[in-house]
Design goal:
It is built from 6 helices and 5 strands. The chain is α+β, with helices and mostly antiparallel strands and about 190 residues long. The chain has a domain at about 55-180.
């Protein structure tokens, strides 16, 4: 009887694992999944959960109710935060105030907010912290359902740092972030 129970339990575990879902609801075929890929997926999910918890301490708006959009260009790029629900005035107000605060802090060389969320080793962050005042222009603007920061620099090393920083945020924010269309200076993101 114990053997039959053990076999039944093992069969249930295999069936569950074969049909397990990721945190965002997508099905994973565990039977055909490479172990290293699986471990990276687990580490990414754990990192995203940690960033979400820390983000609540720094960002006044709800990560679940907003989307971060990052678009690179040859002089830096644009970071948008928009409410997922069109016309969500409470989130829009919080987004706009936060990005105004972030613009002010970044222009002073204060990158403590992303450091608290993403850690000291966040790609691109050390280079951005080391930039001299005026090396990176950061322009704020209201957009439909949120706000945007445009980062612009003539220093190619800082452009790379901004791109690395955008990529790290895309990875860390997971389903709450998306890549905007890469575009050339003067063209707007879609």
């Amino acid at each position: 009887m114990r053997i039959l129970n053990a076999i039944a339990m093992a069969s249930m575990a295999v069936a569950w694992a074969a049909n397990a879902q990721t945190m965002d609801g997508q099905m994973i075929d565990h039977q055909n999944l490479d172990h290293a890929v699986h471990m990276k997926m687990m580490a990414d999910a754990e990192r995203q959960a940690q960033v979400s918890r820390l983000g609540k301490e720094v960002m006044p708006f709800s990560l679940a109710a907003t989307t971060h959009i990052f678009a690179k260009n040859e002089t830096g790029g644009e970071q948008q935060v928009v409410a997922k629900a069109a016309g969500d005035e409470a989130q829009i107000k919080l987004i706009r105030q936060h990005l105004l605060d972030i613009q002010e802090q970044f222009l002073k060389g204060d990158f403590s907010a992303p450091t608290r969320i993403h850690g000291q080793a966040m790609p691109g962050l050390a280079e951005l912290k080391a930039a001299k005042p005026g090396q990176i222009a950061i322009v704020y603007r209201d957009i439909k359902d949120g706000a945007e920061l445009t980062y612009k620099t003539a220093d190619s090393k800082l452009v790379v740092a901004l791109h690395n920083w955008f990529d790290a945020q895309l990875s860390d924010h997971g389903k709450d972030a998306t890549k905007g269309h890469m575009h050339h200076e003067g063209m707007k993101m879609q």
